[in-house]
Every structure is written in C-alpha cells, then in structure tokens.
Amino acid sequence: MQFFFSIWNIRAATKVRRTIRKNRPDVVHIHNWHFASGPLIIRAVKKMGIPVVLTLHNYRLLCPSATLFYKDHIFTDSLYTPFPWKAIRNKLYRNSTFQTFWLAFIIWVHKKMGTWQNVDQYIVLTDFAKALFLNSALGLKERQLVVKPNFVHSAPIDLTERDEHFLFVGRFTEEKGIGVLIAAFAQSGYQLQIAGSGPLMKEVWQACEEFESITYLGSLDRADVIAAMQKCSAVIFPSIWYEGMPMTIIEASSLGTPVIASNLGVMASLVKNGDNGLLFEPGNVQSLQNALNIWSSFDKSVQKQYCRNARAFYEMYYTPAHVLCGD
C-alpha cells in the first residue's frame, strides 16, 4: 500500500513535520526516497524553511528501472523523454506495466510540481552520475549537484610477491558480468577465484565443477576479502551496467591491487588503462581475454608498478581525509 500512496503521503509528511518541530534540525538529509515516505516530505520540509539534501544512490529519478539496465543492455531511453513510455511497455519495475507506470507517474507529477527542483543540494557519488542527471529531462541545475564519493579505510598493504591467479568479488548477477567472466576464464588457462553470492550461484557452481581454472571461495567477510585481494594478481570487474560507486575497485586500489575492468561508466574513470589497471570492452569475452594476456605478459616489476599506481590513486582521491575534508 505504501507504493500506491507514496505520490502524496500525508501521514509521512505529518510525521516529518512533528519530528522537525521536536528536534529543530539545521538540515534534513534524505538518502534516495522511499515509498514509505514519498516525495511529499521534501515539500513539507521546505515549507518549514529547512534546507534539504538528497543523496542519489541510484537512477530512480531518471528511470523506473533505477539501474538503467534492461535485458543485459544499458537502457537510457528514459533519460531524455518527458515521460518514460518505453520503460512502461518493457515493464522495467517489478515486471509490471501498471507498477512501472505508477512509479513513473509519481516522479513525473513531482517534477511538474517542482518538488525535485526544491531540493537544495543533491549529492551524487561520481562525476559520471552528475553528468547523467544534468543531461537528463529531470531539469536540475548544475549548482544543485555536488560529487561526494564513498571512501574506504585503508588496510596495511603488501607489495611483495603476489600469486598469479585473478579474483572476482561481488554479486552473481547478469549486470555484474558473471557470464562474461566465466566464459573468459573457462578455457583460458588462467586461474580465477570467485567470492560472493547471488541469483546466478548455480552457474558459478557449474563453472567450478566443469573447469579446474575456476574456484569458488564462498561469501567472504571484509577481512577475508582484503586477504584475498592482497594475494591475487589483479581483481576482475566485468560489470556491464552503469555502476553507482563500485567499492570493490576502491577497496582494491587501497590495497595496491590493480583492477581489470569494463570500459564503461564510472569504471573508466576509476581504472586508468595502462596505469593502475586495464580496461576491456564491456560484455566482450575476447576483449577480456586480451586484457588477461596483456597483464600476464608483464614482468613482475611492471606489475608491481601498477600496484604502486593503484595505491597512489587511492591516496589521491578516496582516503577518508580527502573525501570528508577535501585534503
């Protein structure tokens, strides 16, 4: 029911007003917006003279999909149209025509009412996301958008000899490029260790049983992920959708671990080809295999330089001090 009433949720707005009167905040910070509250709370907060900050963790305001991904492909049709009819026809939200329409209608109504324009400051995680929002039909102004990436606390790094195997850490879904990953390593002769879980677990298990080159490590906690990243030759990041802020790449960089990633979206700015990692054509098995061949052709001194470059990239942009204080 929350979903259907979220277009004008008076109850949620009343609760927010009551909380503001009680606590008297200087600013209200919202992360995305949820059906339990709805966009009306933005109008309620602004009416009380309180600035509103909204952090955008996905692309919901641009497309009902929230991911700009449909049937294994990037889907950007909704960005530049007044109303996302194609997304509705394709049932991009919960595989439902009506629910996709209703979600699109909520966003459209509040765009027409100026709700989204009333937000004082939007926080996006990357320059890539900022460009998508600014160039869309949402109608935001550049002064409303500020880039504030995530960060990680660094663990001790070890630039001594690494193993020769590669590592994938993440969810087992189509958009994460699991199919490309398995196909590239299946008969490549390179060793791959996979950590994580997800809907494509069956496919990962089958690959591990069929190919000796692929090993499943399980679903690891952060300490074990760090240990795995410190041992591997490089992390593979084959995502085929517009990632928000891929923390796997930031984590790897903090440990001085190079990344071989899809040349797509924010990945192309986090991985500098030939510096702290390598890029390959998204969704292209042969291109990934070529990148693996290039990486493996480097002698150890070159690979260690990539490791140093990865760590330097982290220290320049993604330390807590830099992100929080701008140092």
Features:
globular, single chain, 41% helix, 12 strands, alpha/beta, 327 residues, 14 helices, four-stranded parallel β-sheet, six-stranded parallel β-sheet
| N-C termini distance | 46 Å
User: If you average the pLDDT, what whole number results?
Assistant: 94
State the order of secondary-structure elements, H for helix, E for strand.
HHEHEEEHHEHEEHEHEHEHEHEHHH
The largest sheet has its strands arranged as: 9-8-7-10-11-12
Structure class: alpha/beta
Number of helical segments with 4 or more residues: 14
Strand content: 5-15%
What is the overall shape? globular
Number of strands: 12
Quaternary arrangement of the chains shown?
single chain
Rg estimate, integer Å: 22 Å
Task: List segments where confidence is low: pLDDT < 50 over at least 5 consecutive residues.
Answer: none
Largest sheet: 6 strands, parallel
- Helix content range of the residues, please? 40-55%
How are the secondary structure elements laid out?
Elements: H1 2-5, H2 10-23, E1 28-31, H3 40-47, E2 52-55, E3 69-70, E4 73-74, H4 85-89, H5 97-112, E5 121-124, H6 127-134, E6 145-147, E7 166-171, H7 178-186, E8 192-197, H8 201-210, E9 214-218, H9 222-231, E10 234-237, H10 247-254, E11 259-262, H11 267-270, E12 277-280, H12 285-297, H13 300-317, H14 320-325
Short description:
This protein has 327 residues and is α/β, with parallel strands linked by helices.
